[in-house]
Amino acid sequence: MNQDAAASNSDAAAGVAPSGALRPTAPAGERTPDATNATLIAREDLTDTLSIVRVRPDSGRVPTFVPGQFVRLGVPRGAHPELGPGGRVRLIRRAYSIASSPLEADFLEFFVVRIDEGALTPRLWEIEPPGRLWMDEQAKGEFRIELAPPGQNLIMVSTGTGIAPFVSMLRTFRGQGRWRRFVLINGVRYACDLGYRAELEAVARADANIRYVPIASREPKGGRWTGLRGRVQNALEDATLERVAGLRLDPADCHVFLCGNPEMIVAVQALLEARGFVTDDRDRPGNIHFERYW
Ligand SMILES: Cc1cc2nc3c(=O)[nH]c(=O)nc-3n(C[C@H](O)[C@H](O)[C@H](O)COP(=O)(O)OP(=O)(O)OC[C@H]3O[C@@H](n4cnc5c(N)ncnc54)[C@H](O)[C@@H]3O)c2cc1C
Ligand SMILES: NC(=O)c1ccc[n+]([C@@H]2O[C@H](COP(=O)([O-])OP(=O)(O)OC[C@H]3O[C@@H](n4cnc5c(N)ncnc54)[C@H](OP(=O)(O)O)[C@@H]3O)[C@@H](O)[C@H]2O)c1
Asked: Which residue has the CA at smallest separation from atom 30 of ligand 1?
């Protein structure tokens, strides 16, 4: 994980100093006294706890970003805005990978799971579109496709909402010869938790070099789920990967990107390092790249 991401989920920071009456939206370049600077313009609910949301900044232009980066979303703390140091409105802020492509300039899209005991997400679920919130004006993060040279097999491994950065990469780079194979593995508890499933199935049907590999860990045996079962590690077994993606886990021509649950990242990293892969870090380039969500 990069330094930006490590620092991204602290609540310490604050918004803008209040100055005047509350208003629902602000002109470009300004922020409202309650520190909001963006509108949640749409929300598509997959389940009670999983949604795809779209956010439009008041400035009218989304921050410049590359696929794989994140911004923070935030809401004022408390029912009534609380003031912190310097008289600024205190915010609860959390990082979210951008799922939309930079080719879409009007809004940013995010895939978010509600954590009932969490500080921010229950508050996000209270916002009905069009509702107000705060969004970073700059994107951050080093988790990007440029970490792998062109022409490699890219194996993208995600749990839950960790699929978001890979959706942005696919939406942006497909059809450009950026990779040999792009294999997108998404491990979820239940099939209903599979975000972007129809879009990804359609993309994979249209392009033989893109493989979408959903895997469910808690679907009941004998039920309707006919796909892979277990955790993402099962999809990385030789025979399974060969069958579903037509390739082998070979450090000579594969880069693996991991995103989501940190325990998954540790487990898959160990599995890959035993196969000769090297974790990429500041001092040593490698072919394992990761983004931890907590
Ligand atoms: C770089 C980065 C990008 C992120 N991108 C996304 C994203 O695209 N979508 C998203 O939903 N979350 C994402 N997260 C997590 C997000 O920042 C919040 O932590 C999460 O939304 C919960 O916020 P909260 O305040 O409600 O609970 P918190 O107090 O922040 O989290 C409570 C607990 O919930 C669990 N948890 C947190 N996030 C997730 C998750 N995504 N899936 C499963 N369990 C989780 C962990 O056990 C965590 O300790 C990202 C985190 C980082 C660092
Ligand atoms: N109320 C609901 O219906 C509901 C639904 C979804 C999410 N949630 C909330 O969202 C939170 C997170 O849910 P989530 O399902 O998105 O994320 P998650 O708990 O990270 O699970 C996503 C997938 O990752 C797997 N996984 C967990 N540990 C792993 C490891 N060490 N290696 C590889 N895979 C691993 C899980 O398998 P296992 O099944 O084996 O753990 C599951 O298949 C929960 O805390 C819950 O509060 C609630």
From this structure: 118
Ligand 2, pocket-test mutation among 45, 52, 113, 268, most atoms within 8 A of CB: 113
Q: Which residues line ligand 2 (CB under 6 A)?
A: 49, 113, 115-116, 159-160, 187-189, 193, 217-218, 231-233, 261, 263-264, 267
Please report whether residue 23 resides in a domain.
Answer: yes
Name residue 157's amino acid: V
Per-residue pLDDT of the chain (294 residues; tens, 9 = 90+): 444 555 567 664 445 444 333 344 656 655 576 789 999 999 999 999 999 999 999 999 999 999 999 999 999 998 777 888 777 889 999 999 999 999 999 999 999 999 999 999 999 999 999 999 999 999 999 999 999 999 999 999 999 999 999 999 999 999 999 999 999 999 999 999 999 999 999 999 999 999 999 999 999 999 999 999 999 999 999 999 999 999 999 999 999 999 999 999 999 999 999 999 999 998 999 999 999 999
User: Are 155 and 214 in the same domain?
Assistant: yes
Q: Whose CA is nearest to atom 40 of ligand 2?
A: 217
Q: Is 140 part of any domain?
A: no
Looking at 92, 111, 135, which one is the last position of a domain? 135
Asked whether residue 126 falls in the same domain as residue 181, the answer is no
Smallest CA-to-CA distance from 42 within 31, 32, 56 is with: 56
Residue 59 shares a structural domain with residue 122? yes
- Ligand 1 shell residues, CB under 6 Å: 5, 8-9, 70, 94-97, 110-113, 115, 118-121, 160-161, 164, 291, 293-294
Three-class SS of residue 188? Answer: strand
> 98 in a domain, yes or no?
yes
**Domain CATH for 117:** 2.40.30.10
Number of compact structural domains in the chain: 2
For atom 31 of ligand 1, the residue with the nearest CA is 118
| Beta pairing, strands 108-113 & 50-57 | antiparallel
Report the nearest atom of ligand 1 relative to the CA of 122: 26
Question: Do residue 128 and residue 170 come from a single domain?
Answer: no
Spatial distance between the Cα atoms of 282 and 135, rounded to a whole number of angstroms: 29
Q: Could you tell me the CA-to-CA distances from 113 to 51, 161, 168, 188 in Å, in that order?
A: 7, 7, 18, 12
